[in-house]
What we know:
With 244 residues, the protein is of the alpha/beta class. It is built from eight helices and six strands, in the order αβαβαβαβαβαβαα. Strands 3-2-1-4-6-5 form a six-stranded mixed β-sheet, sandwiched between helices. The chain starts with a helix and ends in a 15-residue tail after the last helix.
Amino acid sequence: MFISPDILTLLFFSRKRFLHTNGFSKEPVGKISVIIPARNEEKNIGKILKLLSIQRVKPHEVIVVDDNSTDRTSAVAENFKDTFERFILIRLTKDPPKNWVGKTWAIWNGYQNSSGEILIFMDADVEPEEGAIEVLVEIHKKHPGLISVWPYQRFERFYEHLNLVFNLIIVCASNMLGFPSKRPKGAFGPVILTSRRDYMKTGGHAAIKDSVLEDHKKRDQGDEFLRKWDYKVQDVSRRVQTTV
């Protein structure tokens, strides 16, 4: 019997949980760095940079790390060099060092060239709404630590619906459905926010440099961090409801 991926999506995600706040508080926020690893993303990099330029809460700097692309990723990104308060384009032209995976190496290079107290890591194909940074920062004020978001996915071709199987595996492994445990595990890689202080404490992406699924390997690293620094893991999406 064939079950449509759309029906499965409805069954598993009927209780959609969107991030949303009641406005931006006056509490001061440190400088915000947005770091975007990009490999052969000429079709997407312009979209995310344009959307970042119209955010209600402006980032202090945007850093694009071209991970050895063979297309026009860097050329497209360079068109935005005068759009932000500070724009950095890093071109990686060699393979990562031994024991490093491409994406984690790109992110690590972005971090090393950043100056913000708040770090936001976004995949190049994410399309953030104008309130995305505002919402992420506001939630981080109330729930310090690491905030991660699984963006709403728009499928434009039929075969892209096959991603549902992989997505369900990730969601189940993260305990986001409430079983086998109610304690969330791991993080969603497409959108992550944390403070520079906490990132440095955990060793950042250097601590998971050899992981392809860097967001889930960060779970083990994070558990050790939680025990050491007495942090708590919370699924705050049940209490806050804008799509990123």
